[in-house]
Design goal:
The protein contains 17 helices and 20 strands. It is 42% helix and 12% strand. The longest helix has 22 residues. Helix 1 crosses helix 9, helix 10 packs parallel to helix 11 and helix 12 packs across helix 16.
């Protein structure tokens, strides 16, 4: 199924048969959790408030189908129509929820082991606009943009999955949007994908598409490589009817579920950061209970995503220090529950991939990673507080993510790294470590080398024309998009998909020499 000409992450080292494996300095799933913005008593206080919110306040607007399932499991609907969740039931569900699972790639080489504070980084968002690569002006995003971003992500090793990051504005109906989004994501990458589905009808509509790509009827369920993104609540403490319908259908279809609660502190969540974390945890736990009632073995991702408002204007501020703390605290709460989880980070307020963008992305992603988030969404490509994206940003952010993941790996302390004899031999011998065997070995395992960041001397850089990072990145984007057209979906399958669905993206647009790139 995979295009073996595609460059893959070097997860097992280099060399042929019999060669000694050389572990790379950065791999998906390195353990985080060293940074803890909350003390243990503070996490317990937040947890107890979340339980109280669920038991004594509950959520309104539950769908009839989920209400029936929930009441049969021990929940109750009060006189105000709010679904209340008994504390014991919530704690039982937390205890029995899957702690680990494989998030499958379309190609198994991209399978990810989710849970246990293993840190992974990827895309996300629903930007309505994209910076046009030729004009530099923001415009409405399209299905072709979704496909092009997927092709970029497919070649960027530190972006571990592709959660659709823009909304295709050139589709006419919600069903067409969901179908074409799924198709563009599937066609552009062999990594795991994620799509936000409007309702249960959309989920059911794409199931044959997923099966056809997987190899036949029922094959997708064996290795589910498409995650359903379910914003099942409208904060504060209300269910989102259509998204809950999609959630129920997705669990029944065997899809992994990203359970998202995305209140905005100071607007739809408390301005107090701890209160925003507690409300978000309660809202996600409500979805977790409902999914477990449907299928106790479902693959759930605890996605407490409280966002930040600039309280002077009410506008979202994705790049703020407060956002960094909120995401890190939510990662720690998920670690307290020992649940596979996701937090948002890298949602810079800058509209350009500039110094502001790099700084805001750097500290928000770093705190989330070191807090042990098992999935960090929206950390590649996003600009303007999630309202826009830029192709150059994915390549620049891939470099940044590699450096951040290297800090997560930490410092190895072992007999080899603390060898007295090595230091003594160099001191009494050559007087430098440049030619020492340990240096040659460690330069492959301990050091990560950027593809975009410029480490040349000032003189060498000037002699090369003094290019800035964005100019170098644009060359890389253009090269990838001109050459890389994945072919893991064969022409026969693609033809059947086009016969069955209203696919907007022309087949001619998906070939080398199409006149666009």
């Amino acid at each position: 199924m995979s295009d073996r000409s595609i460059r893959r992450p070097n997860r097992r080292g280099r060399g042929g048969a019999g060669a000694t494996a050389t572990p790379p300095p950065v791999t998906p799933g390195m353990a985080g959790g060293q940074f803890q913005p909350l003390t243990r008593p503070e996490t317990e206080r937040i947890h107890h408030l979340a339980l109280r919110l669920l038991e004594d306040l509950g959520l309104s607007q539950v769908t009839p189908s989920l209400e029936r399932r929930a009441t049969e499991a021990g929940c109750r609907v009060d006189e105000d129509g709010r679904l209340r969740f008994p504390r014991a039931l919530v704690e039982d569900v937390i205890a029995r929820t899957r702690r680990r699972f494989t998030l499958h790639g379309i190609d198994p080489i991209h399978d990810l082991e989710i849970g246990a504070r293993r840190v992974h980084t990827g895309t996300g968002g629903a930007a309505p606009t994209i910076m046009d690569f030729e004009t530099g002006k923001y415009r409405e995003s399209t299905v072709a943009d979704l496909y092009d971003i997927a092709r970029l992500v497919d070649r960027l090793d530190n972006i571990h999955w592709y959660h659709r990051s823009v909304v295709a504005r050139d589709t006419e109906t919600a069903l067409d949007l969901d179908i074409n989004t799924t198709y563009a994501c599937l066609s552009g990458t062999t990594k795991s994908i994620a799509v936000s589905y409007t309702d249960g009808n959309s989920v059911r509509a794409v199931q044959p598409m997923l099966d056809m790509v997987a190899g036949g009827a029922g094959r997708y369920r064996e290795r589910p490589f498409c995650t359903a993104v379910c914003c099942h609540v409208v904060p504060p403490m209300r269910f989102a009817t259509e998204s809950c319908d999609a959630l129920e259908a997705a669990v029944l279809a065997g899809m992994p579920i990203l359970l998202v609660a995305a209140g905005q502190a100071g607007a739809t969540a408390p301005a107090a950061l701890a209160g925003a974390v507690a409300q978000s945890c309660a809202e996600v736990l409500a979805g977790l209970v409902l999914c477990n009632i449907i299928d106790t073995n479902f693959r759930g991702i605890f996605a407490a995503w409280p966002f930040v408002s600039d309280l002077r204007t009410g506008a979202m501020s994705g790049g703020s220090g407060e956002q960094a703390l909120l995401s890190a605290a939510c990662a720690q709460m998920a670690g307290f529950y020992d649940l596979p989880n996701s937090v948002p980070a890298g949602m810079t307020d800058s509209k350009l991939p500039d110094a502001q963008s790099g700084g805001e992305k750097g500290y928000t992603i770093s705190l989330a990673a070191h807090a042990g988030a098992t999935m960090i969404h929206e950390c590649a490509g996003m600009q303007g507080s999630l309202m826009g994206t830029a192709l150059e940003s994915y390549v620049l952010d891939n470099d940044l993510l590699g450096a951040i993941l290297r800090t997560v790996k930490g410092v190895e302390v072992s007999e080899d790294t603390l060898d007295f004899d090595i230091i003594r031999d160099v001191v009494l011998g050559a007087g430098h470590f440049l030619g020492h065997p340990q240096t040659f070995a460690r330069m492959k395992t301990d050091y990560l080398y950027p593809e975009i960041a410029d480490r040349r001397s000032i003189g060498e850089w000037q002699d090369a024309g003094a290019p800035d990072a964005r100019a170098v990145t644009r060359d890389r984007v253009r090269r990838i998009l001109a050459e890389h057209y994945p072919r893991h979906i064969g022409d026969d399958v693609d033809s059947r998909l086009r016969e069955r669905y209203n696919i907007v993206l022309p087949r001619a647009r998906m070939r080398v020499g199409n006149g666009v790139w």
